[in-house]
Structure formats: C-alpha cells, structure tokens
Amino acid sequence: MGQLEILTGTRNPLEIKYTQLESRFDPDYGISWVLMNPEAVPCFNLNILGELQQYNQSIEDCGGKIWMNGQMHQIHYMVFASQVPGVFNLGGQL
Q: Which parts of the chain fold into alpha helices (H)?
C-alpha cells in the first residue's frame, strides 16, 4: 500500500500499472505526463481508452494530487503524448 492510499484511501496515479500508457510527473511545474504506447498500430483502441479513463479517475479520486518522493504535489497540467517516434495518433481502431 502506498503513502497516498494510506492517507486518503485512494491509489497514487503513478503507482498504477498500465499496458498501453506510462505516467510521469514533473513536480517543478506540476505536470502529469501521460505517454501513449499503443499495441500494434499507433491509434486509439478500446484498451487505451479504458486505461485513460482509469488514469483520469485516479486523478479525480485523489483530488488532483500526486504523492512523489515523500511529498504531496498538486497537478496543474496534464499533457498527453505519444511514445511512438514521429507519430501521435493515426485515428481510432474501435
């Protein structure tokens, strides 16, 4: 159990394991980075949409705060990006 879960009863968004997303946090600017790494073709699919919904719900559940390096940080911005070089998205495969 992580520190945020102990304090608030919610899971820290950075501790949730995803198959097609990676999350990072920049405490200097309060930026939550969500990096898309889709299976096969770089496009939205039902699994990645489900993981995005889970990530957004975890942010909402913890009141827009992330526990990192022993401190609570407010999320000011969320940036969605791709880990596929040169490609953000080729549409949807829904």
A: 3-8, 46-61
- Report CA torsion sign: 3, 72, 12, 33: negative
- State residue 67's pLDDT score: 87
- Cβ neighbour number for residue 91 with a 10 Å cutoff: 9
Half-sphere exposure of 26 (CA within 13 A, CB side): 11
Residue 24: name the closest of 15, 34, 10 by CA. 34
| pLDDT confidence tier of residue 6, bands split at 50, 70 and 90 | very low
Q: How many CB atoms lie within 10 A of CB 42?
A: 19
| Structure confidence at residue 87 (pLDDT) | 84
* Alpha-carbon gap, residue 42 to 48, rounded angstroms: 11
pLDDT at residue 34, as a whole number: 93
